[in-house]
Amino acid sequence: MKNLPKQTFSLMLTLFSVYIAACDACKLQQPEATREWTHGTGPDSDWDWFIVGIVILITVLAFYYSVKYLIRPEEKDEHHIKYTIFSDEN
Q: For the whole prediction, is pTM greater than 0.70?
């Protein structure tokens, strides 16, 4: 049982190593920008790159705002539910 975490890590590394780099057949089908990263065929048109860019932008913005409001929520309303939880009154 002591080796369970080490065995689990080894199994995860083995299973996910397939997804870390593209196989040789897929590298031939990918454009230069994504050749080492993904499996399958690459984007077919400029619209595909536009969609990928929009998805990346949305992901970065969502991550930025989630971290921002996690660190500084900026909630100043005295009747906000967090003040009922943090109050010393019973």
A: no
